[in-house]
Amino acid sequence: MSIRHSLLSLLAEGDRHGYQLRQEFEARTGGTWPVNIGQVYTTLGRLCRDGLAEEVGKQDDGSVTYRITPAGKAEVDTWWAGPVARTAPDRDETSIKVALAVSSPGVDVLDVLEAEREETLRALQAYTRAKTRIPDHPTGGELARLLVLDQQIFTAEAQARWLDHCEQRLAATTQGSAR
Amino acid sequence: MTEQTTGDLLRMTDAGRVHHAGTPTEVHALRSFSLAVAPGELVAVMGPSGSGKSTVLHLAGGLDVPTSGEVVLDGVSLGGLSVRKRAALRRRAVGYVFQDLNLVPALTAVENVMLPRELDGVPTAAARAEALAALAEVDVADLGDRFPEELSGGQQQRVAIARALVGPRRLVLADEPTGALDSLAGEAVMKVLRARVDAGAAGLLVTHDAQHAAWADRVVRLRDGFVVGTTGEVVHGVGEAPAGVVGGVAGGYR
Ligand SMILES: Nc1ncnc2c1ncn2[C@@H]1O[C@H](COP(=O)(O)OP(=O)(O)OP(=O)(O)O)[C@@H](O)[C@H]1O
Ligand SMILES: [Mg+2]
Fold first, then answer.
1. Distance from CA of A41 to the nearest CA of B (A)
2. Residues A71 and A133 in one domain
3. pLDDT score recorded for residue B123
C-alpha cells in the first residue's frame, strides 16, 4: 500500500512525529495526494503493530515520536528495489461507455468518442497551464509537482490516442457505414 | 483588397479546397472551413491523416488558394492578389515550419535561417545575428555551420523552426513541428512557440500529439475535411480544473 510504504520511507530518513510525516509527504509529492492526519495515525498504528516502526517517547503536548525498526528498513529497501505491481485497472467508465456505445441502438459511437476527446483535451490544457507556472529550473517540491503533472499529462495523452485509435478502428471495421 | 475590420491576423471564411474538380479523382481536401486567429492566440489543428490539416496551413499561409471562400491575412484578402504580391505578403508576415522541413541542402543551418531575412532586405551581418539568436532559442546555436545532411532529424527540425521564427513574423504556421523530437525537446519547442505567441504573434499549429495541442488556446479537430469539434472556444485561461490538477489552474498563460 502506497501510504504505508511512503510513510515508512520517510521514517527511514529519521525519527518523525505524525504531523511531520503528513507535512513532508505532501510537500515531497507535489501536494497532489492530500492525506488527513487520521490516515497517518492509523497507518503508523499498523506499522507499529506489524513491527516495522515503534514509538520512542512522548512530548508534553502528547505528540509521539516514531522510529523505523530494522524490519521496517528491510521493508523499505524491498519497496525501492521492486516495481509497483501493475494491478488490473479499476473499472474505467470511459472504456465501459465506449464499449457499450458500439452495440447500443440509437447511440452514435463517434459522438461519444468526440465528447470524451473534448474532455480529455480540456484536462490536458489545464495540466499544461499548471505546468507553465512552474519555473524553468524547479527545485524540491516544485520538481516533484512537475514530475507528477507530467505523469497526468502522459496519461491523458494516452487516453486521447486511444480515443483516436478507436475511431480509426471503427472506420476500418465498419467501412464507412457510420456517417 | 478587403481591409481588416477586426483584430484578427488571420481570418478564413468558408474556405474550401477541391483538387481535380469535376474529374473522377476529385478530392475535397477541405470543406467550408472558418477560423479566426488573433495576435496572442495559438490554435492547434488535429485530425487523422488526410483530414485536411496541411491544407488549412497552406491556405492560411497563402501557399495555395481556396477554391471557395476567403482567406484574409493581416487585413489583405489573398484571393485578390497576384502570385507575386501574395508571395511578398507571405514572406513579410508568415513564418512557416513545413511538414517535410524544406531546408535548402546547399546552405548551412545558419544560412537557411538567414535566408528569409535576407530576402526581406536585411543586411547580411544583421540577418546572421538574428539567425544565430533564433538558433539559440531552439537550442542548436552550436550547429549553425553544419549542412542539413550533417544534422539529425530532430536537429533539422529545430533549424526549420528557427527559420520560421526569425525576424518579426506576425503569423507562425507549424506543420508537425515536434514530429522528430523526443518529449523534452518537443516541450521546449512548444514553450518557444507559446512564448512567441504570448509576445504578440498569431500561431497555427498542426499536430497529431494531444500533449502538444494542449499548449494551444483552442484545438480544432478535422475529419474528412470537416470540422468535427473545437475545444476551448471560450476566452482562454478560463475553465474548470479537471480533478487532480496540481496547484489549480486559475488564470491563463499571461
Ligand atoms: N495536390 C493534391 N492533389 C490531390 N489531392 C490532394 C493534394 N493535396 C492534398 N490532397 C488530398 O487532400 C486531402 C487532405 O490532405 P492534407 O495534406 O491536408 O492532409 P493532412 O491532414 O495534412 O494529412 P497528414 O496527417 O497525412 O499530413 C487528402 O486526401 C490528400 O490526399
Ligand atoms: Mg499534413
1. 24
2. no
3. 95
Among B19, B209, B221, name the best residue to mutate to test ligand 1's pocket (greatest count of ligand atoms within 8 A of Cβ): B19
In a domain, B117, yes or no: no
For ligand 1, pick from B26, B45, B54 the residue to mutate: most ligand atoms within 8 Å of CB.
B54
The answer on pLDDT for B202 being more than 90 is: yes
Which residues 136-165 in chain A show a CB within 8 A of chain B? 145, 148-149, 152-154, 156-157, 160-161, 164
**Angle between helices A70-81 and A2-11 in degrees, nearest 10:** 120
State the average pLDDT over residues B210-235. Answer: 88
User: Nearest residue of A to residue B224 by CA position?
Assistant: A179
- In chain B, which residues have their Cβ closer than 8 Å to the Cβ of A126? 239-242, 245, 249
CA dist A68 and A21 (Å) reads 13
pLDDT of residue B80: 84
In a shared domain, residues A10 and A77: yes
Say yes or no: A111 and A132 in one domain: yes
Q: Does residue A179 lie within any of the structural domains?
A: no
CATH number, domain containing residue B22: 3.40.50.300
Distance CA B24, CA B219 (A): 33
Look at chain B and report how many structural domains it folds into. Answer: 1
Tell me the pTM.
0.83
Q: Are B117 and B167 in contact (CB under 8 A)?
A: yes
Contact B247 A120 (CB under 8 A): no
Phi, psi of B18 (to 5 degrees): -110, 130
Residues of A in contact with B237 (CB under 8 A): 129
Task: Estimate to the nearest angstrom the gap between the alpha carbon of A10 and the chain centroid.
Answer: 18
Statement to judge: residues A113 and A74 lie in one domain: no
Q: Which residues of B touch A120 (CB under 8 A)?
A: 210
Residue B33 φ then ψ, to 5°: -95, 125
